[in-house]
Design goal:
The complex is a heterodimer.
Chain A lengths: L1 H12 L3 H26 L4 E2 L2 E2 H22 L5 H7 L2 H6 L4 H7 L10 H11 L9 H31 L4 H14 L9 H10 L7 H8 L15 H21 L7
Chain B lengths: L3 H12 L3 H28 L8 H18 L6 H8 L2 H6 L4 H20 L1 H10 L7 H32 L3 H14 L11 H9 L1 H5 L1 H7 L6 H31 L6
Classes of the chains: A mainly alpha, B mainly alpha.
Chain lengths: 261, 262
């Protein structure tokens, strides 16, 4: 059903081919700006917070790839507040398809794939430049961390959307969680204050998107001194995030009362 | 008193009508401020005094630019665009007041409202956590002038983008290009003082520098005397050039407009 709705919206977007192409291209360039920013920082110094350009670009690539895929799949959910405010959520509820699928596929457009282009490109360029002790386990960890990161971000999208059932105006704030999380994970967490790192490890588990797995791939010590098992905890963390998001979404939907009297 | 002050006043009221939504935006601006500040501190630890900034300057720059996202509307966009697409602009053109003047008045009200609700939180939060650089009363006055000119430049750019819809009919492609230019060349991604070589020289001469980088430099007291006058003149020149171009384009657009239907 998801695929059918996504395909319908894609065909709608393809009615304006030039606009679609330009938008995909522009989305790719906006995504690449963060990578350009990182390279500008490294134009001045070979290392920032103990990490080289290739290592930070590796973090950027894995984070942006995971976030990009999750954005394609579920990014549309952030418009839930708008639907609640305008009363259009009621129309979604009477249709025999999950409202989450309907919201996520709404306005689905191939332009969102533009975000993946710079992410994949940078990751492809950064990987051979890494000074990592490559073993089979480390090679396998790279696709695994992108997959787990995608699932964690997907859970965060749904969690942020669920919050809008209660706080209709909260979209401006939940962007900190989604877009802020995507921005944060592009950089090594050694840059940030220790309490902040604890927060994004234990409260909002952004550290498991790519930071903890990267410590394993790059063979670095953990600044928080967590046990080695934490480096392989991403799949479990992803499962927990999704479970919490699912409960939050169901609770929100059950307590939803339409606007008006 | 003409109609324009009233337009500004009502735009201000409209943009301060939802304080909770603005507070939510301010919170996100603040969170991004902390992330960006930590990254910049990392760079300035490796390279103290880069581009004439010390670490406190870099942190202040970061939170100040986060506070200015709303007033300068760095992500672009203008309500006028939708009105041109839908044809409502015909009503605007029917009014006995100039189109550009009307929307400039509206935008000044929007900027003031946004500054009132979204300007404070990032600055206060940043100053509480990091060493900060505050200007004296004279510097604050100069900053107010620089900020006002920055808003004018921002309006000039966005108004041109909006009027382009008369010819293009779809604004999204153009808006996306404008967003790239404005994010990168305003200093939002990396401060323009940290741009290397020629790229830095070019970036500092473009109108986007007049929106964020110049007001921030004035706030940090990087200009004094003739330098300050030069910086404000640079902004004023871009504001005049862009608003002048907008004026000419408005005249061309009037001839271009075809109202469909009755």
């Amino acid at each position: 059903m998801y695929a059918l709705l996504a395909w319908t919206w894609t065909r709608a977007a393809a009615q304006y081919p030039v606009s679609m192409l330009l938008l995909s291209l522009a989305t790719a360039v906006v995504g690449a700006l963060d990578a350009v920013g990182i390279m500008l920082l490294f134009a001045h110094t070979p290392r920032i917070a103990g990490f080289t350009a290739a290592e930070v670009l590796f973090l950027y690539g894995t984070s942006a790839l995971a976030f990009g895929i999750s954005d394609i799949l579920l990014g549309g959910a952030e418009r839930l507040g708008q639907h609640v405010r305008e009363g259009t959520l009621d129309a979604l509820l009477v249709r025999p398809v999950s409202p989450l699928v309907q919201i996520a596929t709404e306005d689905f457009s191939p332009r969102r794939f533009g975000k993946l282009l710079p992410a994949a490109l940078v990751l492809g360029l950064a990987l051979p430049r890494l000074d990592a002790p490559w073993t089979a386990g480390r090679v396998a960890m790279v696709p695994l961390m992108v997959a787990c990161g995608t699932v964690i971000f997907a859970g965060l999208w749904v969690l942020a959307a669920s919050l809008q059932f209660v706080l209709v105006d909260s979209h401006g704030a939940t962007k900190s969680l989604t877009y802020g999380g995507a921005f944060l994970t592009q950089y090594p967490l050694t840059l940030f204050a220790r309490d902040f790192v604890r927060g994004v490890t234990f409260a909002v588990p952004l550290a498991f998107v790519n930071w903890q797995p990267s410590l394993y791939v790059l063979d670095r010590p953990d600044p928080l001194g967590l046990p080695d098992a934490a480096r392989f905890a991403a799949p479990a963390v992803a499962a927990v995030v999704c479970a919490v998001a699912a409960v939050a979404w169901r609770t929100g939907l059950r307590h939803y009362r339409s606007t008006g009297s | 008193m003409g109609v324009f002050p009233w337009v500004t006043w009502f735009a201000f009221r409209r943009h301060t009508a939802y304080p909770l939504g603005s507070a939510a935006e301010a919170l996100t601006n603040t969170v991004f401020g902390f992330i960006r500040a930590s990254v910049l501190i990392g760079l300035w630890r490796a390279r103290p005094h880069l581009g004439g900034y010390d670490q406190a300057d870099a942190v202040t720059f970061c939170f100040l630019t986060q506070a200015l996202i709303g007033p300068v509307q760095i992500f672009g966009g203008m309500e006028l665009t939708q009105r041109i697409r839908s044809g409502d602009v015909a009503i605007d053109l029917y009014r006995p007041a100039g189109l550009q003047g009307w929307w400039l008045a509206d935008d000044l009200g929007r900027a003031a409202g946004s500054l009132a609700l979204r300007g404070g939180p990032p600055m206060v939060a940043g100053a509480l956590v990091f060493p900060f650089h505050w200007p004296g009363p004279g510097g604050l006055a100069a900053f107010a002038a620089a900020l006002a000119l920055g808003v004018l430049v921002s309006f000039g750019l966005r108004y041109l983008m909006a009027l382009a819809v008369f010819w293009l009919h779809d604004d999204r492609g153009l808006n996306a290009v404008a967003l790239v230019m404005s994010l990168f060349f305003s200093g939002m991604i990396v401060p323009l003082v940290a741009f290397p070589g020629t790229l830095g020289t070019v970036a500092r001469a473009l109108p986007w520098a007049a929106q964020i980088q110049v007001p921030a430099d004035v706030f940090l007291g990087k200009h004094s005397g003739a330098g300050l006058a030069g910086a404000l003149a640079f902004q004023a020149m871009w504001a005049a050039a862009l608003i002048g171009a907008g004026h000419l384009l408005t005249r061309a657009a009037r001839r271009r407009l075809v109202i469909h239907g009755g």
